[in-house]
Amino acid sequence: MRPSAAPCRGHPDTTRADWRIALATNAAASKEDEIWQALARAGLDRLLDKVYCYRTIGHKKPSREFFNYILRDLRWAENLCFWSATILKWT
C-alpha cells in the first residue's frame, strides 16, 4: 500500500509516489511477514514499500552482502535515497 502523492518535505517538486521507501533490519527472530504485521499494528506499513530482513537475506548489517542485496533488489534507481543508522566499516 503506497501513501498518497503528497509533496515530500524539503522537496516541493517531488511527491511520495516518486520514491520507494524500505526498512532494513537485522531482526533474527522475525520473518518478513511478521515484521509487516508488526508495522501494520503501529500503522507504519503504509509508509513503506519494502522490508529487508536478515532472515531473508542471510547476511546482517553492516556486511557488504546485506547492502548489496538491497541495492540490487531496488535496482539502484535515481529516485533511491539510502540512509542507514549502521556505521559501515568496510575495508
Provide the descriptors you would attach to this structure in a database record:
alpha+beta, two-stranded parallel sheet, two-stranded antiparallel sheet, Rossmann fold, 3 helices, 91 residues, 16% strand, flat
Task: Give a written overview of the molecule.
This protein is of the alpha+beta class and 91 residues long. The chain has one domain: 3-Layer(aba) Sandwich (Rossmann fold), CATH 3.40.50. The chain is 27% helix and 16% strand. Strand 1 and strand 2 form a beta hairpin. 8% of the residues are buried.
In brief, what are we looking at here?
This protein has a two-stranded antiparallel ribbon with strand order 1-2. The chain has a two-stranded parallel ribbon with strand order 3-4. The protein has helices at 32-41, 54-57, 64-74, and strands at 7-8, 11-15, 22-25, 50-53.
Strand-helix topology:
Elements: E1 7-8, E2 11-15, E3 22-25, H1 32-41, E4 50-53, H2 54-57, H3 64-74
Parallel strand pairs: 3-4
Antiparallel strand pairs: 1-2
- Report the uncertain regions: 1-5
Class by SSE composition: alpha+beta
CATH superfamily: HAD superfamily/HAD-like
Helix content: 25-40%
The side-by-side strand order for the widest beta sheet comes to: 1-2
**The level-1 CATH class:** Alpha Beta
Number of structurally distinct domains: 1
> What integer is the average pLDDT?
77
Number of helices: 3
The coarse overall form would be flat
Largest sheet: 2 strands, antiparallel
Query: What fraction strand?
Result: 15-25%
| CATH level 3 topology | Rossmann fold
The gyration radius over C-alpha positions equals 14 Å
Could you tell me how far the N terminus lies from the C terminus, measured between alpha carbons in angstroms?
A: 38 Å
Number of strands: 4
Order of helices and strands: EEEHEHH
CATH architecture classification name: 3-Layer(aba) Sandwich
